[in-house]
Amino acid sequence: MMASSYNAKEEDRHQPGATGHVGSGTMTNKMPDNTAFKQQRLPAWQPILTAGTVLPAFFVIGLLFIPIGVGLFVTSNNIKEFEIDYTGVDMSSPCYSCSQSYSWNNTKSCTCSVPFSLDQPFESNVFMYYGLSNFYQNHRRYVKSRDDSQLNGDKTSLQSPSKECEPYRSSDKPIAPCGAIANSLFNDTLELYYIDPNGSRTAIPLVKKGIAWWTDKHVKFRNPSGNNNLTVVFQGTSKPVNWRKPVFELDPSDSDNNGFINEDFIVWMRTAALPTFRKLYRIIQKKPNNMTPTLPRGEYILEVTYNYPVRSFDGRKRMILSAISWMGGKNPFLGIAYITVGSVCFCLGLVLLSIHYRYGKRNSADISS
Amino acid sequence: MEEWLYWSLRHLSLGLGVMYSLERPVQGRSSCSKDRLGRKRRTVVSSLTEDEELTEILKSYSSNKVTTTKYSFLSFIPKNLFEQLHRFANIYFIFLAALNFVPVVNAFQPEISIIPILLVLAVTAVKDLWEDYRKHKSDKFINGLVCEIYSRKQQMYVDQRWQDVHVGDFVRLSCNEIIPADMLLLYSSDPHGVCYIETANLDGETNLKQRQVVRDLPRQGSELTPENFHSRIECENPNNDLSRFRGFMEYPSKARVGLHNNNLLLRSCTIRNTETVIGIVVYAGHETKAMKNNNGPRYKRSKLERRLNVDVLWSVVLLVIMCLTAAIGHGLWLRNLKDTSFLIPDTTSPALSGFYLFWTMIIVLQVLIPISLYVSIEIVKLCQIFFIQNDVDFYNEYMDSRIQCRALNITEDLGQIQYVFSDKTGTLTENKMVFRRCTIAGVEYPHEENARRLEVYEEDEAMGCSHTLKSRASAKSLSCKSLSCNRSSVSLHTLTGHSEGEESPSPTLPRHSAFSSPMEKDIVPDPFLVQKLNCLSSPLFLLRDASMELTYIVDFFMALAICNTVVVSSPNQPRHVVLASLPGMVSRTPLKSLEDIKMLFQRFGLPRFSTLSSPHTTESPRSFTQRGSWKGEGPPSEPRADELIYEAESPDEAALVHAARAYRCTLQGRSLERLLVELPGMGSLAVRLLHILPFDSSRKRMSVVVRHPLTNQVVVYTKGADSVIMDLAESPKGAEQSDGRQGHIREQTQKHLDNYAREGLRTLCIAKKVQTSTEYEIWLKRHAFAETSIENREELLLESAQRLETNLTLLGATGIVDRLQEEVPETIEALQRAGVKVWVLTGDKQETAINIACACKLLRTTDQLLTANCDSKEACKALLLELRAEVERGEAAEGTSGFTLVVDGRTLDFALQEDLKGDFLELSRRCRAVVCCRSTPLQKSHVVQLVRDQLRVMTLAIGDGANDVSMIQVADVGIGISGQEGMQAVMSSDFAISRFKHLRKLLLVHGHWCYTRLANMILYFFYKNVMYVNLLFWYQFFCGFSGSVMTNSWVLIFFNLLFTSAPPLLYGILDKDVSADTLIKLPELYKSGQNSKAYLPSTFWLTMLDALYQSLVCFFIPYFAYAGSDADMLSFGSPINASALLIILLHQVIESRTLTWLHVLVLVGSALFYFSFTLVFSVVCVTCSPPTNPLGVDKLQMSQPLFYGVCALTTVLALLPRFLFHALRNSISPSDTLKAALMDQLNPDNYCRRMQHWNQTQAQSKARGLIINVEDLDIKIPDFILPKELKECRAATGSVLS
User: Quick one: where's region Disordered (chain A) (predicted)?
Assistant: First the structure.
């Protein structure tokens, strides 16, 4: 390479065809390689979309989607779901008084009983949800207001929670669990009673474990380690402002469901995507070796310990009983959508077919003329 | 490959740099201490001076150390950061990152928001570092080169490094060494004080340039002794004008001598053919002209990019609208809320929260501004350039050169050209000037044999050439032989009797100059003229009346031989000595032989000069007398002057010198003061050269002033354009008896000139003038004044030359033929079919220009020719209007197929004036072709500028010579042809090709591809960003406009940066809508690019609309599917993200016209990358990335059938409209491009039928008043690209049509 300090020129010499190498001993042939890649002759598939070529695709989609849609629709329709609103907006509603007299700082809890009847029995496992409406759990600042390392059992975060938790970071002592999400934990208690035709009330057993994601329960949420006694562990922290009891008393009966790994708490901490949402509350398990349905047809009473305020922002509280299929809960939308899209595709396929006959012929005439 | 990579990265940085920056970094230390002192001139004295003040001055000049690096080891990080932060796009990133650190606005964690900026900064920094390191290495190498500097201490020249060279130092250089700094030539070992340099490093020109020792320098023995040098040099301050150097040298005696450009040795040139030179450094280091000229590649903004910027602005508008919507929505939402448990208690008013939210949203939706698009475009263009450069069709075997892409960012402009402005000479023609015929003293010598030779040669040339070059490197001489053998096989041998070439293996076949090609060298003399010349040696010579015409003839050839700046070199001393990499390695073999030869000439020449009185006494064996005639004579027995190699700045000169030599009037040597000429019957004569008044474009002529060896008179020989010379040769008032004769000669010559021009020959007139000594003295005085003045010397010199060149006696004229390049007519025809208007701008005469235009099919026989020649503005105006009316009539009448306008230079002058240019444009727009003849370089650029600015069209200028430079620079795309006339055009061009025919593939194929690829990629980018960002926007309606996102922030940032970045790149690089063959065969396809079909505003908005629809589908199908369920934010976002990815990738598949295994690889790779990334992330990330911790989300989602159900439905529904749209459009009203693409898929048989059909329909539409008539159809498919079976089909086409 010639010695030269002129970069622009030097660059030119890097380019083929420049004259810098003229006469130099190392004359190379500058003929470009005649390879398929360099000459842009790579074998290629050229998908040209014409009525003729896309026809099959439309029919295939149509024929695939319609059965899928029907399947989904049927599945969804077979799922039984029962929903009852217990907010108490109406004067006639049993929870009306509770909803009126409420504030976070109430010490006395208010209870109300909501009667309802099931027309159809639930055969398999029943999932009991509570539903909230107009509750923006996805608000950006609300979502941020948590400390994942604290919830993961990190000692330092326990003592000095993340700044994101402000203003629920510390009262006089650091708050555990800190942040707005934890602070607004849903604290109604729901109980379900079956009214026998003879008038007696049978409490329905509600399983409170197994409602949270396995990963959340076992990986993401951990109590601070070091001591089995949670009271000791959480010493030096205070309870969230709106809570009535500290975190280590969420379920004193079961050490595996207490503290940060309380499943109600974990479920609440997974913030809902949309302002109207439901959260799994309890599972009513199918009775083993018994042919009787999980929830037989008949009269029921929902006993609510009414704590959670929603009236101030026009929120609603619901209790939902639902079975679950392989496609999740009851939602006819997907099935209908599949059927619609499938039929639209099929119709378009027919339209394209006619177009293909009209214009495709012309095109082939083009060729043969 | 590595080089290419380096080069491309470098360019990338440059492009980015310019794109980002408003202010380009200043490279190196360019400031000059001199400027600060505010002095207009620089004074240079010998560095050996004792004077302290002067030493101080010398010290103030910059040294020869060159630093082109930007950074030092320590300053790299701060300085690089600082520089990068100056860039506009980076500021956007930083602004976003900074916004994110404001607590009330932040959307993501701070560390995430700085990822984009970090990535960009890091990539750029690494690239800068590497680049700077390379520069540093190269600087170090150059500064460490060694040259010989005179040392006062040791009283001799000692080796010093280049960086230690200072202004005022004396540097001694040997042959083949590189000049370390700009120096004034003080001594040359050449007895005439001449030295030759090669400026290839500077401007790429490989011919030798002659430099002269400063005039009248007192000779101090054999070598200059620096101690005795006490002169003072005053010269200009450093500037970048390579062709100008002004100053004077003041001797201790106070005498002043003017300094010229030809006294200056420029840094980085190479000394050639001269054993030793000594010079004094006047400019060093960064102040040298070479360094001042060192600016990087050109940066032009392409039309597409301008269009793109508009749409980027639209994106900004869209962004602001979206953010405003969100801000207002948030404010209203907050106001309607009362006490809530999910709101963090806050005292900020809803309005203020809305304001904060505006900025949050800007962070969230930042991707909408496609910053990565700019980077992608740069990368794509680099790859496009790579492909263009590697196109084997642009390879020129003869010159072993490929296409050079010098501007790297306007590839897509090649696909949008509407007007092509072409130079004629060297562009359409080969610029291999061959003497064809001449007229002397009013008598025409047709040179019939010569014409025949040229015809025969034509067919044979290609074969010979290719032959030569294949083995050039290894066996030059052998290949030369084969070339000459080829020539003689055409039986030239018997015709000429000149077969010296055959047994003289000339080792120097300069690659770029055609001067040595036998076609130009071997001119067959006209027998009649030879006969006349023979009289010269016959006793009749003394008869007076016979000699009158003979004097003309001798003078004519004398003028041909000496009126030029041709450099003569001898084959024994190869000019192109091995170009070694460093002076240390240069073979310092002294050029003894050359010097010897010159001395030999001196010894032979000078004594003869003294005994000139009796030229007949010469006993030279080669004497004309003894030979009688050279017909049938065997080859001379000894190697002799015939093997001299002539190198001229313009090929015409060489052609004329060769022509003169054919008549035994041989230029044998040249020095500063003498020319050695061999005349028939007189042997070698030394002619004293008094002055050369070089050629310039305003005078259009050049002259030499010599003392005639025979008469001892001062004679001026002038050679120039016929128009000028004919005017100057106006009969002088006092010429009585010769007047009649002169008048006759002028008349006859004019007639012959017109004939020549009609034949398409280039004409030059030769004239002379005898000066009396008193006249000469007077002129000389004023000329000397002009030469030594520093200010406005050019004007003074011009004036002085004009004073001399008057009252000329016309001797005769020459006709030089310049053949058309191969495939020029085909190329022009293809361009015209492609809807490109071709203009030819030439300095030639009208007749010549029209002739060439006919030859290259620019002008058809059916065309109506409109000529515009007028003398005044008023006439011009009237003419323009008249012609326009005529065109309108013609258009209405429908008979003629088109109009061609021919304008001459003078009319063009008028037409370009403010008030007439509208009319001119209106007229020329309706013409199919325009030929501007007799136009100056300035006019050329004016025409281009006018058309470009007024008609707002894309222009391309193509040319090969220095006179095309301004036009090339003005046009949107400038193309240089690397040909015979040096490299100026190439250096100023955007693309440099070697033949005109390459233009066809460059525009029709690469231009089309580059444009459609880039346009589609840009649209895709916009689509991609809008589609993705809108998903986030729709979510705002369901989260209280709070700026929440339903995706993990890492995934969000990486979505554009990693997951979906590679496929569009590949799409922009490799997509191919129509095959190259079809594009060439159907030039009409080019029109889609011309009309910007691929990227219209409507296409942009349609794409936006589609993106909007797709995002709606992509958001709301999951929304309804998950509405009311227990899905959390990330679980909701997961199917949205996944289907967005699928939609975006599949959208590209729909849009792609070709899919190769690379596409499949990248598309599948991107999808896999996304899914594996999210999966792995959802398993490993336990507490990371708050608040959007993805732990378990995607793992869980991807195990649920609902996820796939949603994704499938979303993807299908989102892509359905576009899919359908494409299918319907392609079936119902397919575009030309698509029809062509469909044709590509047919088998050869059908393909051929289809092609035929296409051409028929095209022809039919044309018959209805458009461009091409049916007869031309069969020529449209050029042979070279046709596979065999298609050739038959072409024949069929012909028969169908007939």
Answer: 1-30, 146-171
